[in-house]
Amino acid sequence: MTPSRSVTPQDQAARVRPADTDHLKGSGITRGDRDDRVRLADRSLPLFVLREHATDYAALFARARAEVGHGQCLCRTPALRLVIRCSRAGRYHLAGWPGEGELHDPSCSFHKLASELTGRGAYSTEAIHESDDGVAIRFTAALARKLSAPESAKASIEQREGRARRTVGLLGLLHWLWEESQLTAWHPRWRRRTWWVCHARLSDQIAGCSINHEKLAEALYIVPPFRKEFARRNTAAFETFRVARLKRRGDTQRRGLILGEIKDVSPTRYGVRYTLTHHRGALFATAALDARLRRSYRPAFSEAAAEHGARSIGLFLVELSPKGNVRVTDMAAMLVSRLYIPADSSHEVVMANALTDAGRAYVKPVRYDGSDLVFPDFVLTDTHPHSFVEVYGIHGRESYDQRKRVKQAHYQGQGAGLIEWDVADSIPDVRYR
Ligand SMILES: [Zn+2]
Fold it and tell me: Which of 57, 132, 166, 309 has its CA at 20 to 30 Å from residue 335's CA atom?
């Protein structure tokens, strides 16, 4: 970077102290996130500045990579290593050091649960390939198909027992996006979480990633939060996705992904239409597909959960119909609390809300495509060792609950605390004691 007498972003960053970041409110990241500091070479900077102005700091990133080989997170003493990634387009990005997520402070942007508490570990390195230039995902479904050839009977590859998954399915991708963007976690230091925050974190996460050798940021449209002043820009961005991404090219029908909050599902003459929060256009699905999705993702369509401020997030695999409508060919849906923390039932939404209200720091372990994996319902990260929260009594999950109790006995044997709630009883006191 050329030295200059004018104010550089570094100078601005040096002046930003946690105490005077209030003027940054509304810019998308919560104040708690803005307290995270990292070191690159000989400079200590707020993480958000590096994220928002990655291009301005390219020279510093390059120097840190050449001189030190990694960045450092200052949430702990001694500092923890961070991977410095550089996409092929030249955009720098910091990522947690593999296997060290648990060592970071629970309020740190790089904190992660231990690998036995996430479905992420079930994939081979070809399915999710992390390297110095980003993350490459091998997605189960094809992102394009030949119109002249009949569609293959089943796009998804059945996974063989006991073997690492070689591709990532729609739900796996949704959980990966959520977990990597730290949206599965809550910490009382983070004051709020809106779709604006989710969108900012997800967008940052996908920059430099690829899916089936295509840029993820081009294949995936994350619905931007509605702001009147950005409405025209957002409409234009969606049109670009629709035309540049989805439009047929000769004999090839291209596909894309749309991620957003499901606002409403209403019947049409041929099936259903999905409307998304913050998004003007509708997505269309056949009645048969809608019925299958409702069976597969029952909690996401739970009306009981909506009463507790829950929302549903949908990741849609879409293509354009001959008339130009956005047609859903598959979808993964996820129930989330009012703070966008994933939940497997309306009772878990109630529990997540109670934990937040009690000022607890917690993480929701997610299964990815591994539907039979058993994890605690929530992990409390403000105790040492971490403790667990279990919600029992969802009808039809008895055998699952049984496997869970076995696992809990194992954790308790290792000294982990446990809060249990049988939903037939009133919710227990979840405050820190
Ligand atoms: Zn950290």
Answer: 166
How far is the centre of ligand 1, averaged over its atoms, from the C-alpha of 98 (Å)? 13
Pairing of the two strands 134-137 and 210-211: parallel
Cα 80 to averaged position of ligand 1 atoms, centre (Å): 7
User: For residue 62, what are the contacts with CB-CB under 8 A and spacing of at least 6?
Assistant: 86, 92
The pTM (predicted TM-score) of the whole model is 0.89
User: Ligand 1: distance of its center to the CA of 73 in Å?
Assistant: 5
Quote the CA–CA distance of 198 and 225 in Å, as a whole number: 9
Q: Are 355 and 378 in contact (CB under 8 A)?
A: yes
CA distance 350 to 426: 11
Domain boundaries, the chain: 1-112, 119-345, 346-422
pLDDT digits (tens, 9 = 90+) for 80-114: 999 999 988 888 999 999 999 999 999 999 999 99
Distance of CA 216 to the CA centre of its chain: 14
Torsional class of 272: left (φ above 0), alpha (ψ -120 to 50), beta (otherwise): beta
Centre of ligand 1 from the C-alpha of residue 13, in Å:
18
pLDDT surpasses 80 at 156: no
Write out pLDDT tens, residues 363-412.
999 999 988 888 999 999 999 889 999 998 766 667 777 887 887 888 78
Ligand 1 center from residue 76 Cα (angstroms) = 6
Q: What value, to the nearest 5°, has the Cα angle with vertex 47 and ends 41 and 53?
A: 90
* CA 71 to ligand 1 centroid distance, Å: 11
The rounded distance, in Å, linking the Cα atoms of 369 and 31 is 33
* Å from CA of 77 to ligand 1 middle: 10
Answer yes or no: is pLDDT of 157 > 60.
Answer: no
